[in-house]
Write a structure and sequence with these properties.
alpha/beta, 7 helices
């Protein structure tokens, strides 16, 4: 487990956001291994960020929901904890389940995502599903944060422009997968920063080649991990996440939390 620190240079950034810190958490995939990762939970409960955002895939199996909530309880930030859902929050997606679905035409086993959202809300984690939140900082700045539904098993929508969007000082989009970069939905509004995950950075990265598989449908391999800027100037951070799916291994792609600091 590592903490990847990123200082983002934002031209004409509001003075009230200079040095503002966001902890980006993604793809927890809570299981026994994650449960016993003391370093992870120590870092999540003693972080130095002003705001925490979680970009989906809290679980793989529904049976871990109660344990997840127990371990996340007490994770706080001065300006709150916001989250979105990922495809694994909606359904139990193992290799066998994919085989049953695509070869045998069987439906996926559904997770009770509504219960997950409800329990997260009770411990102070607000889940955004095609909705937005306005965060007011202690320095008087305004963050517009919009979260989309999962692009694989949900219906992601980005809202039209609004007075809250127009008057905000910094605009952040949360989407589970970097595939949102190729969605017509993204053309509705301009965002300063996109936070996303889903790819796990590939889990296996070959030197000189990169990830062999990313799980993304449209995003390129070079867009599967790290921080970069799109041609229109939007900053993007793709986290390699914490847990794993399908294969229980990571090579040259350690699990991570990303601590983002805004500046000029």
């Amino acid at each position: 487990m590592r903490i990847r620190r990123e200082r983002l240079e934002i031209p004409a950034l509001n003075n009230g956001l200079q040095g503002y810190r966001i902890l980006h958490v993604s793809d927890i995939h809570f299981d026994e291994k994650i449960k016993n990762n003391k370093t992870l939970w120590d870092q999540l409960h003693s972080h130095e960020a002003d705001l925490v955002v979680i970009t989906g895939d809290f679980i793989t199996e529904e049976r871990y929901v109660d344990s997840l909530i127990e371990y996340m309880q007490g994770m706080k930030a001065k300006d709150g904890v916001l989250a979105i859902l990922g495809n694994h929050d909606y359904a139990f997606l193992t290799m066998m389940q994919h085989f049953r679905h695509y070869v045998m035409n069987r439906p996926y086993v559904q997770n009770d995502w509504k219960r997950l959202v409800s329990l997260l809300g009770k411990i102070g984690v607000k889940v955004l599903i095609n909705s937005f939140e306005i965060v007011k900082t202690a320095a008087g700045a305004s963050l517009f944060i919009e979260g989309t539904d999962d692009p694989v098993l949900g219906t992601p929508k980005i809202s039209d422009s609004s007075p809250e969007y127009e008057s905000s000082d910094f605009k952040i989009l949360l989407s589970h997968s970097p595939d949102i970069l190729y969605s017509d939905e993204l053309k509705k509004k301009k965002f300063d920063l996109l936070l996303t995950g889903h790819t796990h950075g590939g889990q296996i990265r070959v030197p000189g080649i990169g990830p062999l598989v990313t799980g993304a449908k449209y995003a390129r391999r070079k867009e599967s991990h790290g921080t970069f800027r799109t041609p229109d100037g939007m900053l993007v951070n793709v986290s390699s996440g914490i847990g794993h799916t399908l294969l229980p291994i990571r090579i040259n792609c350690p699990p991570e939390l990303v601590l983002i600091e805004l500046g000029e």
